[in-house]
Write a structure and sequence with these properties.
It is a single chain. With 460 residues, the chain is of the alpha+beta class. It has 3 domains: 210 residues, Rossmann fold (3-Layer(aba) Sandwich); 86 residues, Roll (Nuclear Transport Factor 2, Chain: A), CATH 3.10.450.720; 61 residues, Roll (Nuclear Transport Factor 2, Chain: A). The protein has 12 helices and 22 strands. Strands 5, 6, 7, 8, 9, 10, 11, 12, 13 and 16 form a 10-stranded mixed beta sheet that branches. It has a 4-stranded antiparallel beta sheet with strand order 2-3-1-4, covered by helices on one side. Strands 14-15-17-18 form a 4-stranded antiparallel beta sheet. It binds S-adenosylmethionine (SAM). S-adenosylmethionine (SAM) binds next to helix 5 and helix 7.
């Protein structure tokens, strides 16, 4: 049976009566109206011009550069630029993270960043763009959900992400390691009721209590990995104060943290709040006030020292590619300077040289699903290029390319054969509107499509 957004549980609406900025009539009306807001954040490293997605005009999301509302939701599946990682479809309120970072973290300069609860990767890709010189560890505890994180970080292509699949407690092996930590905690999810009315039936007061306890456990587990002076950003998509302001009070009582307020523009409609006891600053997003879904966010700076040191054990050091392999790889890269190439089985992986020891340190403590950019596999005298290379910023710009029409680009993304006509033979980058989609090998009279099977479009 379909649930309607207007069927909000009475106990739920009553529980919000005491929340700052809550307007029952407007809140119920906006759920009843059920408007769908669609927004995207551009990958400015791949595209500078707003893509005219679905042929429609875009209007800016005011708190995040390069982010836009779409007048209508197009079929993203049938937009090749979506698969190429030129934009990420992200709920607008949660993009406020950018504004928080720009005010509290300031100019980025090579930070170590953890996104603890990261799948499917909305905030991780935002962090990878913001901290373009940094290293972003995107972690997801649920193994199956970490797959989509690998996919989205590969498509984003910035190369500064490490995807891990660990429990928050495992990060205690990295005391004082991270400069910035984002905990976008699992929550009771009421902020998404308008978008996903099916979730309404799962709401209960008991679940709010359970979520609140789990949020505390997660924060307590990961806290030692934040360095002194480091930034902790906590967010949920719940309206319940037990998961929002009360967590802020709990954090302030439990740890030596300083609340970091941010400045808002009045026309954004975001409600500034302070926690009841410790007066920590937080920000509430109500869909009747902002153009976006329900969201809550707060930032803190750590005032105490974290005890312990991270040592890299010799046996976890990464095995560098040989000189010969490095030469083989160089022809595929825009530039090799500043890159460290290492081998994992037969695959050559590139990371920024400055992160070499960090990747080794992470490898000895965490379960890494993906680090840096996979360049390709050495097969005899040849390199079979990896899909990640095609979508990354590292790939050489003047390799052999073939620009597809939209129809053929979609055929390619379905992993079907495309008639290549007179295309030159050999390894070729499949492109659409100047953006790489993946690899193919053009052979006499046919082509081999190297688009990853698991990511292909299944719909016709
Ligand atoms: N940050 C993501 C984004 O912006 O795309 C959304 C994250 S979602 C709100 C919360 C995530 O926490 C989910 O991916 C969920 O699997 C994960 N999670 C669930 N239980 C957890 C736990 N006990 N510890 C850490 N993460 C957990």
């Amino acid at each position: 049976m379909q649930t309607l957004a207007e069927n909000l549980p009475i106990a739920f609406v009553n529980s919000l009566e005491h929340c700052a900025g809550f307007d029952r009539t407007a809140f119920e009306a906006v759920h009843k109206a059920g408007e769908k807001v669609t927004s995207v954040r551009l990958n400015t490293a791949k595209t500078q011009v707003p893509a005219n997605i679905g042929g429609q005009e875009l209007s800016p999301v005011p708190w995040c550069p390069g982010a836009y509302y779409l007048a209508q939701r197009p079929s993203f599946t049938f937009d090749p630029l979506f698969h190429a990682g030129t934009y990420y479809v992200q709920e607008a309120s949660s993009m406020f993270l950018w504004s928080v970072l720009s005010q509290v973290a300031g100019e980025p300069g090579g930070e170590r960043v953890l996104d603890l609860c990261a799948a499917p990767g909305g905030k991780s890709t935002l962090l990878a763009s913001y901290f373009h010189n940094g290293l972003v560890v995107a972690n997801e505890v649920i193994r199956t959900r970490s797959n989509v994180l690998v996919e989205n970080s590969t498509k984003w292509g910035t190369g500064n992400m490490v995807v891990t699949n660990n429990d928050p407690s495992h990060f205690q092996a990295l005391p004082g390691y991270f400069d910035v930590m984002v905990v976008d905690a699992p929550c009771s999810g009421s902020g998404l009721f308008r978008k996903d009315p099916e979730a309404i039936s799962e709401w209960s007061e008991d679940n709010v209590t359970l979520c609140s306890q789990r949020q505390q456990r997660i924060l307590a587990d990961v806290y030692p990995a934040l360095k002194e002076g480091g930034l902790l950003i906590y967010s949920t998509c719940s309206y319940s104060s037990e998961e929002d302001e009360e967590i802020l009070d709990w954090l302030m009582k439990e740890f030596a943290l300083e609340s970091c307020p941010v400045t808002l523009q009045p026309d954004w409609g975001i409600v500034p709040v302070s926690s009841p006891e410790k007066k920590a600053a937080g920000y509430r997003f109500y869909p009747d006030k902002v153009k976006g879904e329900g969201f809550f966010i707060a930032a803190f700076r750590k005032k105490e020292h974290s005890s312990g040191t991270v040592f890299v054990k010799k046996n976890t050091l990464l095995s560098p590619a040989t000189k010969q392999e490095a030469v083989m790889v160089a022809g595929w890269l825009q530039q090799s300077e500043g890159l460290f190439l290492f081998k994992q089985k037969e695959t050559i992986i590139a990371v920024q040289e400055k992160w070499r020891d960090d990747i080794a340190a992470l490898q000895q403590t965490l379960h890494i699903r993906k680090a840096g950019v996979a360049i390709g596999e050495i097969k005899g005298k040849d390199l079979v290029p990896d899909h990640a290379l095609a979508l990354s910023l590292l790939v050489k710009k003047d390799l052999q390319v073939w620009e597809f029409s939209k129809e053929n680009a979609l055929q390619y993304l379905r992993r079907k054969d495309v008639d290549m006509g007179e295309a030159p033979k050999g390894w070729t980058l499949a492109r659409y509107e100047g953006v790489n989609l993946g690899w193919m090998k053009v052979l006499p009279g046919r082509m081999n499509n190297y688009y990853p099977v698991e990511w292909r479009i299944l719909k016709d």
